[in-house]
Amino acid sequence: MQSEQKGQKLLQDQAPENLEALSAKFWLGPYAIILATLYLWGYWSSFHVNVLEHISFTEVIKIAAYPILSAFFFLAIGMLVSGLSPLNSIFPPGGGRDSKEGKFLNKNWKWFAVSFFIVIILIYLFSSINKWFILPPLFACLAALPVKSTGLLSKELKSENVRSLVIFVLCYLIPFSYGRGIMDAHAIISGKDFIYSSINILNLQPMVNASIDIQPRYLGKLNDRFFFYDPVKETTILVATSEMKAFDLKSRRGSAVLQIPGKDGQTSERGGAPLSQESNRSPGSTGGAR
Fold first, then answer.
1. Taking the CB of residue 250, how many other CB atoms lie within 10 A of it?
2. CA-CA distances (angstroms) from residue 217 to 7, 63, 192, 247?
3. Which of 1, 113, 165, 282 could bond 83 through an S-S bridge, CB–CB 3.0 to 4.6 Å?
4. Is 166 exposed, middle or buried (0-12, 13-18, 19+ CB in 10 A)?
5. Contact, 288 vs 222, CB < 8 A?
6. What is the C-alpha to C-alpha distance for residues 35 and 64, in angstroms, rounded to an integer?
7. Is residue 265 within a helix (H) or strand (E), and if so which, with residue range?
């Protein structure tokens, strides 16, 4: 009996250390790959493209890092400010567990968790594209507490307030990455925000006096292919880089020329005002404009 108790105590003493070592050494790389894959999956699946057919895993993070970080940057600042607020010393994490409300919630937490999960599922199934503004914080609220209870990052981050904030952000980024990919694709398909080319991608001839709404919309570059969306036929067009020397990319803020070496090693140029910094990269592309 005593040997069993000693064994259980030994496991309890060793478990946090193993988890801390695992969290510090092994999960950051796979976590980053998961976020990048979720973004690319959300973006390219909207155009019926299996992104992993065109790029390798080594390119996943490089392609998805810019759109994820640029979209999350200002939100992260807001989270950081709120997480380091002086009010956190007055209302520390878990500080209300002994109150009447806290005891009630702790006693019935399973029912609240199930109800919360059902709400998330209903929003996911029946809400509009704007649900991706709501789902990430809801998911983070549901997942952060059980993740924190495992002792994740307890060795690296001594402040409970900071650790709570970091874990919340880590949970938030999982649905955020997938949803951001879907929203970026939806903006192109719906015509809300896109980069277009005035060249007919199929015959490489200028589309004279053509409305912007019917011109090919640039999606990105994967490996040795450029991808465009045809808003008229609602189809995705793949063009090999060897088939094109140059095409123009335009936005409401200006235009740019993308140069591609031809078969003879030469490049062609077309004039145009440079794209603004906000529009110089396509989400999910290795180069180009967005």
1. 21
2. 63, 19, 12, 12
3. 165
4. buried
5. no
6. 8
7. none
> Residue with structure tokens 């956190």?
88
Length of the chain: 290
Query: What Rg value do the Cα atoms of the chain yield, rounded?
Result: 24
CA–CA dist 64, 38 (Å, integer) = 9
Rounded-to-integer distance, Cα 75 and Cα 137, Å: 11
Q: Which residue is listed with tokens 């993070």?
A: 61
How does pLDDT run across 41-64, given as a tens digit for each residue?
A: 999 999 999 998 888 877 888 888
- Per the listing, tokens 């794209």 go with 275
Residue range 10-28, pLDDT digits in tens: 434 444 444 554 555 678 8
Answering whether pTM is above 0.90, one says: no
Backbone angles phi, psi at 237, to 5 degrees: -110, 130
Distance CA 276, CA 264 (A): 31
